Amino acid sequence: MDRPSFSAVELAERFGLVVCGDADIRVANVSTLVSAGESDLAFLANPRYRSQLASSSAGIVVMRAEDADAYGGTALIADDPYAAFARLAALFAPRAEIVPGIHPSAAIESSAQVHADAQVGAFVSIGDRTVVGAGAVIGAGCVIGEDCSIGEDSELGANVTLVTRVRLGKRVLIHAGAVLGADGFGLAMEGGRWLKVPQLGGVTVGDDCEIGANTTIDRGALDDTVLEDDVRLDNQIQIGHNVHIGAHTAMAGCSAVAGSARIGRYCLIGGGAGVLGHLELCDRVVVTAMSLVTHSIRDPGEYSSGTPLMDNRSWRKSAARFKQLDTLARRLPADKESE
């Protein structure tokens, strides 16, 4: 299949951008400023990479107006070059054509409903009373349990598991190996032994969400675990039972949220960060990578914990001094009185 190509003027008209330079130049791929060739589209969003413009061979570069003044090549001017590039790049990575139908190897319970326009891949299992909407794509090897629903135009990659009572909105994208609706980690201690607390809730995922590969979202104990619209989860994230994540929040890889925590809207959680259970984060909170949230956050802003990286010898000295902080703090009032 021939790769599609677009001229600068075609891209500008489609996405409301302004052309500076050769409006007829065509591009058929996307790349970085350093690696791009004459038929590639690149972008400049971070000023620290401005020095790469002079040596770049990109056919078209998406950039701000102030950067284009000193650029001799063809530019597409955007207020937000990164967002514009994301929309442009989607032209070169179109979604695979949906082929409606059910693979002969799929096992579907008689009470399940699969829309005629859905695509069900090889070796898929779909349980009782589950509903698959129009335009949905179920990848090979997926296991869909009972009482689930998959919204219109949603896509499940290979080997995704929806255990039970998982409800997906429209246009949800779940990458390979993710597990939604497994038991939450509910335990009660009695007589020195653990009792398992039944997890009777489900998982509700809003429209336009994305869930990364091998990410796990536990179902609720009583009420559902909830992701509101447009939540974006990276790979290998753990979401505990009864967690509620507000719309437009994004979480980077290997982060984790313990049970019954509530995260607001438009929050950003860095890679490897953790949120303890039963805490609340208000809207527009940024938690930097590898931080641990140990108390509720009531005010928007950026929050961090831990110590910056340093050489091991210096870190050992600092760690020894951390242990002395309480003793030093207790001595301070006495020291001041003696002055």
Q: What features would you describe in this structure?
A:
The chain has 339 residues and is of the alpha/beta class. It has three domains: 6-92, MurE/MurF, N-terminal domain (Udp-n-acetylmuramoylalanyl-d-glutamate--2,6- Diaminopimelate Ligase, Chain: A, domain 1, 3-Layer(aba) Sandwich), CATH 3.40.1390.10; 101-303, UDP N-Acetylglucosamine Acyltransferase, domain 1 (3 Solenoid); 315-339, no CATH class. The protein contains five helices and 39 strands. The protein has an eleven-stranded parallel β-sheet with strand order 8-11-14-17-20-25-28-31-34-37-39, with no helix packed on it. A hairpin with a 2-residue loop joins β22 and β23 (193-196). The longest helix is centred in the last third of the chain and has 14 residues, at 325-338. The model has no long low-confidence stretch (mean pLDDT 94).
